[in-house]
Amino acid sequence: MSEALCAVTRAYQEYMEFTEEQLCGRCIPCMAAAPMIIDVLERLRRGDATAADVDQLERICAEVYVTALCKHGQKAVANLSQAVKDYREAFSLHAEAKRCPERSCTEILRYQINPERCTQCDRCREVCPAGAVVGEPYVPYRADNYPYVIIQEKCTRCSACLEVCADKAIEVV
Ligand code: SF4
Ligand code: SF4
Ligand code: SF4
Known about the structure:
Elements: H1 7-21, H2 28-46, H3 51-67, H4 71-86, H5 88-97, E1 111-113, H6 123-127, E2 133-134, E3 149-150, H7 160-164, E4 170-172
Antiparallel strand pairs: 1-4, 2-3
Helix pairs in contact: 1-2, 1-4, 2-3, 3-4, 4-5
The chain binds iron/sulfur cluster (3 copies).
């Protein structure tokens, strides 16, 4: 569903490319830092990181830069560090607001129902393969119609509900 990759995803992909193609294990700091860097980037992408993790990422990059034995190792952390500086707002949004405006970090996305637009037609509940939608079809004479909501813990972000909602009541944030 994403059209453009966010800065965090781009940084993640670039660093992963380095680990897959160039990381050789000759020096310990570069080798030891890789799983820590990947862990922070993956947590940022799924909304499990904090601002302190972003600071830690910068510290790790700075340490590896001065100890790396080759230009590939230096370049990998220098690029990552530069990405954090250039796109600080994007990194902060992932860490603090748990948001990915480009929607390229699918695990961080929240599908939610806008009650103002929802006509309680029940289509989303019917198609949801995860049983993540709860609610009851609208009954005119009832005052206690149960509104439709998406249980975030159950949602697998498959977008099936999005496709059937004719009222554009499902928002992805
Ligand atoms: S800095 Fe270079 S030599 Fe050292 S482990 Fe990383 S890729 Fe290998
Ligand atoms: S498909 Fe849309 S309008 Fe129908 S219940 Fe779901 S959110 Fe509401
Ligand atoms: S995105 Fe998929 S899993 Fe989540 S509420 Fe919609 S249909 Fe269910």
